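Page 37, continued from 36.
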């Protein structure tokens, strides 16, 4: 300020200044400055409440709101910046207000504390950014759905244990990822309901003796209601931990998708080709094309999970109410938001531009005796107990391996030789009729199955869900 001493919001009772080591440990403005726009929103609401309580005259309110607007503008243009001497975002903004208003600026602190302010700021920030994250998830869902639509009729090897299991529609597999992401969005929307509580008015911990109006502040800031318990309001970081869980699970889902892309793009699979725009090369091997986006998507999940662990560990064992430990809530939250906003657009771009090698998928779909279950189920329809059918098909698979044949290569005679169950039946039907991939897919036509018609039903349903998610993110 005038004498160039660092401004503190708590200087009154202290004789000496703080030790440098404490100042360096304590300062958070280098990361909490991003909360400035939200702190200013809350300040405007608080100023109006002070005015209605008779604690600011109309003229004072007008000057206060004018200064807050100007400070907001100056923050956005970069004309006003925090300095190393500002302990946190609240200190920096109070300095900005005092520079504009002189002692009138000091009136805004009445009835509030950094404890209810910071809890409010972080909720506002997160509710805003959750909507951005949902928009990015919607783009990823849309990219996957479009590829699924293109590939609903393409048969692919469905795997368990990374071994060929049964043929599936490749679109069905892509949609499996979409369902996971729609649940992630659902979880964030559900989170938002619980996060929509305003801590402002709780003061340091006990509320205020001034006639404030927490409900009016809550409404002005877009919250559903004010917090019903001031102690809970300043101590609670459930909303941050819960957000980090949602973010970590999104990370896990992106990582799982990334791993599939890495596999699919490999020489061994050759199911897809990642577009050049989403691939990198090697500094030594000229032929290399690497799926780095998918790998980074997989890698970033580690820090998302770490952020959740970090905050839960910080919160564990804290007595009520505010403790300075809570300052440690912000960096994991910000890092998770930044990470998701960074990784999601890259993954969406990679998915929407990847080229699917349909011929390779179709050719591999029956490999590894993937139609064995279809054969066993045919015997079941002919009245054979499944236990016996399973055994007979198992023998047939071994016979094929010994004789270097695929199920699809077998003649009626060879089949009948392995087991009478495989003989042509009284109606003249051969078991070979079920030994085709297209029939195997179409047969799985119950709700949730991989039949291409069911895949198209899923696509129609998912498009509706994704549309409503997009609307939520942009309208609420
Ligand atoms: N920088 C602090 C935080 O992030 C703001 C609240 C400080 N409150 C206090 N009583 N020192 O938690």
């Amino acid at each position: 300020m005038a004498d160039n001493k660092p401004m503190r919001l708590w200087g009154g009772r202290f004789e000496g200044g703080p030790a440098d080591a404490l100042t360096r440990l304590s300062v958070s403005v280098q990361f909490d400055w991003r909360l400035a726009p939200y702190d200013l929103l809350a300040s405007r609401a608080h100023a109006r409440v002070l005015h209605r309580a008779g604690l600011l005259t109309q003229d004072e309110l007008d000057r206060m709101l004018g200064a807050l607007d100007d400070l907001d503008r100056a923050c956005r243009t970069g004309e006003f910046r925090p300095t190393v001497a500002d302990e946190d975002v609240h200190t920096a903004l109070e300095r900005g207000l005092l520079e504009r208003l002189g002692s009138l600026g000091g009136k805004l602190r009445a009835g509030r504390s950094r404890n209810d302010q910071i809890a409010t700021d972080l909720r506002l920030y997160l509710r805003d950014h959750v909507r951005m994250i949902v928009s990015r998830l919607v783009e990823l869902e849309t990219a996957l759905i479009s590829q699924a639509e293109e590939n609903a009729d393409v048969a692919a090897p469905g795997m368990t244990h990374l071994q060929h299991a049964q043929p599936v529609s490749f679109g069905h597999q892509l949609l499996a990822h979409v369902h996971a992401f729609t649940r992630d969005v659902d979880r964030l929307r559900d989170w938002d309901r619980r996060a929509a509580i305003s801590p402002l008015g709780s003061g340091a911990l006990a509320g205020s003796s001034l006639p404030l109006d927490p409900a009016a502040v809550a409404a002005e800031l877009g919250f559903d209601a004010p917090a019903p318990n001031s102690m809970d309001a300043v101590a609670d970081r459930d909303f941050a931990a819960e957000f980090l869980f949602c973010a970590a699970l999104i990370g896990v889902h992106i990582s799982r998708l990334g791993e599939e892309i890495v596999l699919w793009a490999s020489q061994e699979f050759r199911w897809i080709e990642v577009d050049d725009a989403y691939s990198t090369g090697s500094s030594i091997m000229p032929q290399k094309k690497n799926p780095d986006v998918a790998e980074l998507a997989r890698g970033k999940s580690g820090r998302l999970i770490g952020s959740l662990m970090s905050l839960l560990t910080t919160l564990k064992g804290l007595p009520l109410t505010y403790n300075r430990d809570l300052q440690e809530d912000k960096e994991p939250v910000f890092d998770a938001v930044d990470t998701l906003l960074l990784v999601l657009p890259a993954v969406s771009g990679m998915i929407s531009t990847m080229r699917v090698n349909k011929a390779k998928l179709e050719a591999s779909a029956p490999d590894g005796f993937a139609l064995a279950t279809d054969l066993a189920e045919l015997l079941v329809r002919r009245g054979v107990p499944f236990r016996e059918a399973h055994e007979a098909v198992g023998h047939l698979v071994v016979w094929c391996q010994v004789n270097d044949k695929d199920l699809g290569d077998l003649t009626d005679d060879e089949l009948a030789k392995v087991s009478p169950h495989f003989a042509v039946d009284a109606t003249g039907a051969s078991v070979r009729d079920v030994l085709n991939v297209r029939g195997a897919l179409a047969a799985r036509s119950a709700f949730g199955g991989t039949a291409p018609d069911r895949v198209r039903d899923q696509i129609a349903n998912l498009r509706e869900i994704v549309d409503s998610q997009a609307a939520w993110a942009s309208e609420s």
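The first helix runs from residue 20 to 26. Flag for discussion at group meeting. Residues 284 and 290 are 13 Å apart (CA to CA).
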